[in-house]
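Entry 12.
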Amino acid sequence: MSLPSAPGWLPCSDRSLERGDPLPGTAGYGERWFLVEIDGAWGAHAFLQSPLDPALARALVTRIESAGIRPLAIRRTGRTAHQRRAQTEWRWAAVDARVGHERVHWGVVTDPADLLQVPLDGATGAPSTEPLICVCTHARHDQCCAVKGRPVVTALAQAYPAATWECSHLGGDRFAATLILFPHGLYYGRVTAAEAPDLVDAYLDGRIEPRWFRGRSSLPNVVQAAAAFARANRGDDRIDAFDYSSWTESGGVHTVSFNHGDERLAVKLAESLSAPLLSTCAASTARPVREFELRSITPG
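Predicted 3D structure (tokens):
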């Protein structure tokens, strides 16, 4: 798929890069996730506009979201249209991305209607110790996701074929290519095909790659941003290096406390709104987005 080339038009991800939109603190929220393999084309809503029966899809999404869980459609990359139409099994994964609870359970059904009976906590699934890599390629949601996501998912599928999946909308189209690494729920943006395998290598080594890191899905955006400032200040890129303790706000200034080994850190950051911007390729109205500025990092 190619992007429009009207004079003066730029894809949202190119506009974001040109503006220098900050990545830290932009990860979408999700403590728990339920992934469903849906082959075939996805419409703007990957579940409701898919090969699944519309009534079944709506019931499934309602069931997942009512439990406070985020649904995500996944599919293998590089499959032919004939292979996608011939789907006879629907794999699912229940993911807990909460700090200290990280886990993935896999299961499979041969009738998609059975997904309405699968325990959303993964109780009937098989636990997995392998990473789960999901790259957004949701073209009908935003063209940038497909154009920039597909080279990334192709590169990762070559390096990590069993772990890599295409996925539906993750949020933050302007940061395409976007991906998430489970079970920790680590969001990345502006990833390229050349850099993506190294990013996963770091994850397997228990490290975050700060250049493209947006935040951890189980933490609020303010805490994500504060952790990024602390990580840069201390030069520590271990995934669990900064243990979130508390968060207070007064007069637009947030104070987020972390335990970092034997020291306790207080990160103060101010919240502001950006200039109005078009955050997706399809957006027609410019709106501001939240941004965070470091005020101080002190012991305590």
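Annotation: The chain has six helices and 14 strands. Helices lie at 12-19, 54-66, 81-85, 143-159, 196-204, 221-234.
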